[in-house]
Amino acid sequence: MRLRATLLAAVIVLLAGRSWAQNATPIFHGALGIRPAVGTIGLKKNVGIANIKIKGWNLVLYPTSNGISPTTEQIIVAVGDSERLVIQAGSVKASRNGKRFTFSDPKTPRGVRSLKIVQYTRGCLGLACYKVSFSLVQIDLSTLVLESPVCTPMAIIIGDDDGFSGVQFARPGLVGPKIRVQSKCDDVNNWPWLS
Asked: What's the rounded mean pLDDT across residues 9-23?
């Protein structure tokens, strides 16, 4: 009976630890390297709602990070102050060598349609480095309807790790539905979990 109680307690502790890891607040703040990207924004129907494709952004983990496990941790792509696009823990698949992670939900009406995370080592100087590509659909970028460029905070959060940066979105000439990610920008407020 005592052995059974001990095993039950161990299982509860293990599950509680696993739940915490999947839903943890980021404590390791890495860097997100921005590259140009393109998308579209609604101007007649769904005004201010945008779709965007990101390719090859660099995610560099904080030096003392305990690492990421995209297959078992919740992933959030955060855009601005209100968008938190969630990929539930267990939805990402890993390659055999454990260095490539993919997610695809082609029918999602809103959120992350696809995600690819690939680990690399060249030029990382001992840090954990990843290339991140993703497609977001139906996200709120309504500030671009009347203003361009706009500096918006963005983050990729994997468990208790994140990479974040200010991202400059632009709608050239405020004409037409095309939008671009131009570069990194610094005119952003602190994220809530940094205070």
From this structure: 35
Give dist(CA 37, CA 43) in Å, integer: 19
- Strands 93-94 and 28-33, by their bridges, are unpaired
Q: Is-contact 86 74, C-beta < 8 A?
A: yes
Residues 6+ apart with CB under 8 A from 3: none
**pLDDT tops 90 at residue 2:** no
Distance CA(184)–CA(167), nearest Å, equals 5
Residue 102, both tokens: 């993919």
pTM recorded for the entire structure: 0.82
Share of the chain above pLDDT 90, in %: 68
How far, CA to CA in Å, does 163 sit from each of 48, 56, 59, 102, 103?
26, 14, 6, 18, 19
Per-residue buried b or exposed e for 162-180, using 16+ beta carbons within 10 Å of the residue's own CB? bbbbbbbbbbeeeeeeebb
The per-residue pLDDT for range 69-106, each reduced to its tens digit, is: 999 999 999 998 889 999 999 999 999 998 999 999 99
Can you tell me which residue has the tokens 């480095």?
129
